[in-house]
Amino acid sequence: MACVETSDYRVGEVLLNRVMQEQLNEVSSVPVVVSTETQEVESDQEQKIVSQLAMMIRTIGDAVKKDGKLDDAIDGMVGQMTSKTSYWKLVEKVFEDSQITWERIAVLFYVAGRIAVKVVIANLPQLVQDILKWTLEYFRNKLLDWIQKHGGWMNSFAELARVQVEKMSSMSAWSSGLILVFLGGVILGSVITWKLSSRT
User: Fold this and answer.
1) What's the half-sphere exposure (Cβ side, CA atoms, 13 Å) at 148?
2) What is the pTM of this model?
3) For residues 122 and 102, what is the distance between their CA atoms, to the nearest angstrom?
4) For 73-89, what is the mean pLDDT?
5) What is the percent of the chain where pLDDT is above 90?
6) Residue 186: predicted pLDDT
7) Where are the alpha helices (DSSP H) in 34-83?
8) Where in the numbering of this chain does the Bcl-2 Bcl-2 homology region 1-3 domain appear (predicted)?
9) Contact predicate 19/57, CB 8 Å
10) At residue 136, does pLDDT exceed 80?
């Protein structure tokens, strides 16, 4: 079990770092490095999981961003985000009714990236490291056990793909071609992941 915990935590840490770094790279003309001490993935399988999950989180995050409510909540708290306690208050909004789902974990990772962007825009880049540290602590204390009980990151793909298809299908009719392309990608990714996991 310790090996699975280490792998699930490592994938979560690398994934969070990647999601935050991608968002910072989009808006910051001055490079802000999320972390120089992040663990590295230990296998091709973990690398593929991180890559596929990062892509899924990006898609889910784009839908959340369009909603605007979360961005408004983040804007209102950026100036107050000086401690783990104040940060966790914002994070708890993602899990308001205490229900953990794969989608909400994806949203949390996206939110951490958005908060990192907001603090950089507010000229507080020193908080980026704290946001990473506080999010990882929340992840380990509140979410890692749930992830393990639900089969690890590998089992997140089906649920996150379903969420993305639902969000995409609510778009206009012209997007049906995009949905088919996306589903093809998800199926291909699932087959690759399945083949890699069956080798070990």
Assistant:
1) 17
2) 0.75
3) 30
4) 75
5) 14
6) 46
7) 44-67, 69-77
8) 57-153
9) yes
10) yes
